[in-house]
Amino acid sequence: MKPKHTSISKIGEFGLIERLKNKCNELRLSEKITDQIILGIDDDTAITRPSPGMLQLSTSDLLIEGVHFDLTYTSMKHLGWKLMVVNLSDIAAMGGVPVYALITIALPAKISVEMVDDLYEGILHAAQTYGCAIIGGDTNTSIGNTMVSAMITGEVPDRFLKRRNGAKPEDLICVSGNLGLSHAGLQILLREKKRFLDSQQQSEFKSELSEYTTAVTKHLAPKARFDISMTAAQQEWVHAMIDISDGLASDLRHICKQSGTGALLFEEKLSIDPLVEKIANQFGESALDYVLFGGEEYELLFTIDPEFESKLSKQMPDIRIIGQITEEKDDIALIQSDGSKRTIVSGGYDHFKKE
What percentage of the chain carries pLDDT values higher than 90? Predict the structure, then answer.
């Protein structure tokens, strides 16, 4: 059965806003968050009251169709979830917790009311999962592609704030999760898109994704690692922290640049996931490069005082030590499995880099 497609023009901008306001008001959040909201989606601005004794964190990300996502293989629900997580991950990287969000959407004529409902289903699922209120934003039309943006505000006690600039020589470099999976999943999705477009009978096309579920899910529906950050933020021996959005090498370089240090990574400690290895081999590419330069991981990268290494596994699961901070400013190198040293000279994704 053909899915229902209601043109947004049938309900108009204000009808759409009212529809979305009602959805957002259905969120069930903690009293601590709702007490901070004086006025939500009902006036020229939202009105909030910050918590006493807390630092306010603010972050914003814009996702553009054709640049950051492809609706051929990205559902609107996945898009809504990911829009929230890319911002929530920034809050986690500072040691904070989310409080509220503003959502802005620019929609071309091809987007229906039902598709917007699906987008907000993903947004609200993430908001409910991580305890974040939706208090406003903007809706607009687009003569080009779909664009969605979120601005999320969080908070953190002053003593728990984590920044990029705290790394010290001899610190151990730690990372959560398995890196490279998101890029591997993207490669599979792009291959399936090509198979679909090349198919002579697209109505009968069947994707081949079942054996790649973990990688595809990591790309389409990543998680914000508050399960790690909430513990890390409370440890004085965690010195610097960042989330991995542009790739391990690129985001480690951010830490080193801000801290005035260098870094040494060890290939044997990167523990490349077998699925990453399998997918990279299928494309004739390097699994190690997927780990070093693949973006959109949203895992946490942080440094710790080496004297507290024994506490790491006890207090934070799913963490590996992959290297050490050095005194050589801006010098990032990899000790390869054969013992040779490789200087890492390039980073991850750059929006304005010429191909």
Answer: 75
- On the CB side of 9, CA atoms within 13 Å amount to 5
Q: Which residues partner with 103 through β-bridges? A: 137, 150
Any idea what DSSP says for residue 290?
H
Reading the block at residue 328, the tokens are 């050589």
Q: Phi, psi at residue 250, to the nearest 5°?
A: -65, -45
**Three-class SS state of 118:** helix
Amino acid identity at 158:
D
pLDDT digits (tens, 9 = 90+) for 79-111: 999 999 999 999 999 999 999 999 999 999 999
pLDDT, tens only, 206-244:
888 899 999 999 999 999 999 999 999 999 999 999 999
Query: What is the third-level CATH fold of 8-160?
Result: 60s Ribosomal Protein L30; Chain: A; (3.30.1330)
8 Å CB contact between 62 and 55: no
Q: Where exactly are the structural domains of the chain?
A: 8-160, 164-203+214-343
Burial of 215 (0-12, 13-18, 19+ CB in 10 A): buried
Q: What is the pLDDT of residue 352?
A: 40
Question: Both tokens of residue 243?
Answer: 């989330």
| Contact status, residue 7 vs residue 113, Cβ threshold 8 Å | yes
Q: Are strands 300-304 and 332-335 parallel, antiparallel or unpaired?
A: unpaired
Contact 29, 131 (CB under 8 A): yes
Q: Which two tokens stand for residue 146?
A: 């779909």
CATH of domain 164-203+214-343: 3.90.650.10
**For residue 46, what are the CA distances in angstroms to 24, 42, 100, 101, 231?**
13, 8, 10, 10, 31
